[in-house]
Amino acid sequence: MNQQIRVRFAPSPTGYLHIGGARTAIFNWLFARHYKGIFTLRIEDTDRSRSTDEFLNLIIEGMKWLGLDWDEGPFRQTDRFDVYKNYAGRLIKEGKAYYCCCTPEELERKRQIAVASGLPMKYDGKCRDLNIKPAYMSTALRFKMPQEGQIIVNDLIKGHVAFENSQLEDLVIIRSDGTPTYNFVVVVDDIDMNISHIIRGDDHLNNTPKQIHIYEAFASKMPQFAHLPMILGHDKSRLSKRHGATSVLAYKEMGYLPEAIVNYLARLGWSHGDQEIFTKDEMIEYFSIENIGKSAAVFNPEKLLWLNSHYIINSNPLRLAGMVLPFLIQKKIVSEDQDIDIKWLSKAVNLLRERSKTLDELANSLRYFISDSVEIDPKASQKFLTTEGIKYLSEIRDSLSRLQDVSAAEIEKIFTDLSKTHNIKLGAIAQPVRVALTGGTASPGIYEIIEIIGKEKTIKRLSKAIEQLGKGFS
RNA sequence: GGUCCCAUCGUCUAGAGGCCUAGGACAUAGCCCUCUCAAGGCUAAGACACGGGUUCGAAUCCCGUUGGGACUACCA
Predict the structure, then answer these.
(1) Judging by DSSP bridges, how do beta strands A297-298 and A197-201 pair with one another?
(2) CA–CA separation, A163 and A206 (whole Å)
(3) Does A138 score more than 80 pLDDT?
């Protein structure tokens, strides 16, 4: 047996968990679960000015909602500064890092000049051999990057990628305020946490040669790298807020199911033949880095919506009823203290399942099942609550009031009998009833609706519709 | 500007030199089913960026062009 698989997801709490981050997390999680390895969560919060606990909590909430459980962590880099100091000390002792006293203004000026003359914008190494001693202020610690030869990144997705060492600059590993920087802490943590595979966005591919040199400076075993292609917006630029919702939790609020998000994101860049729908277990079983594509993918909200409706259709109505409840409360269809029969609710949910693409939609459709009265759409009323329609309405009402067993089957009998006696299509009766009961022209089967709404409420609504015409409202 | 990555229907993708008159899915259109709306079923339209090689044979390999993207911080 080879060494244990250990991967990590390392978000920085400078924002909520977004779609791209979630996909990286999913791939890491899938990889760990597939190989029965360890998935660790690490919080990269070395940028203290931009990191907040609020974002951290939101990220954790998002992970939990998606069902991405981790085995170790969350570790916070701000808790590990002594570790980084230690590692940095080793580098200094071995002459692999040096202090730099260049000012930001000076560096910026040099960058300008480099751009103007078409040279790479890299640090010129001014302080490299000056042997500067650390001062209280304004000395940063830089890593001595090799300046000759090539470095090959052997990436599990991108293949062999070569970089010229001369393109790499002596990056700052400890800021002048004493805090360590990303490219350094990443390596230290991955060494310290014994990470075997680094699966991350390919926006980090250019950082990888620098990081490899740091690994080498510590004579550490090299992890395997796998750089995932980016997720793009519809205009093919990197997915961002201007393309719409990018926060995972925003999708929760819009009424998406976590399994739809996970399925969609997993399929974005990864595939298993022609299969589109995967259970979690299937994904874990089939997942393989080999089947991850190399090219960036455009995020397609429509396909996500389709997957969501698929999962809603195939969800247990009782579970859906529980999930839709917060939406009903938020819409004030149900009051917070209202005692609602979840079993009864699930019957209505059952009818609405295949007509709702989101829980939000589902909640809206539930309104006419739950509310006492229904608001009738004027257009629908005009079309179906005609003199003729009203006539059928009252006949249905009469038959219904005589009915003992208010079941869909019995109700159907009433409707079909009536259509036969008048020699008219079922729709001529069903549509007016539908309008009277639901307020609109589109709904689940009318017999089932009546069964769920119940005899009393149905008759009340039919009567109200009949009265409205009598008052000249049409 | 420099470095690096990428390139099959509108979108996600299958495709590891002959199985490809390029398959599936979303979206779109039509039909069927039908009490409406959905769901479901069937059908249609729709792609190998371009140019050179290599090969008996290329979507698949190589080179170039073009186009997109990422990185280029004392951010991560």
Answers:
(1) unpaired
(2) 9
(3) no
Cα A185 to Cα A265: distance, rounded to the nearest angstrom: 28
Angle formed by the axes of helices A258-267 and A301-313, nearest 10°: 130
Give the residue with minimal CA–C1' separation from B7. Answer: A295
For Cα atoms A424, A427, A433, give the angle at the middle one, nearest 5 degrees: 110
User: Nearest protein residue to B40's C1' (by CA)?
Assistant: A354
Measured CA to C1', the nucleotide nearest A162 is B4
Q: Indicate the SS3 state at residue A395.
A: helix
DSSP string covering A113-150: HHHHTT-------TTTTS-PPP-SSS-EEEE----SSE
Q: Which residues pair with A38 in a beta bridge?
A: A6
Helix segments in A8-68, DSSP class H:
19-34, 53-66
Give the count of alpha carbons within 13 A of A162, CB side only: 3
Q: Which ipTM value was assigned to this complex?
A: 0.95
- pTM value is 0.94
Per residue in A322-367, pLDDT (tens digit) is 999 999 999 999 998 888 999 999 999 999 999 999 999 999 999 9
Active site residue A110: no
Instruction: Give tens-digit pLDDT for A167-223.
Output: 999 999 999 989 999 999 999 999 999 999 999 999 999 999 999 999 999 999 999
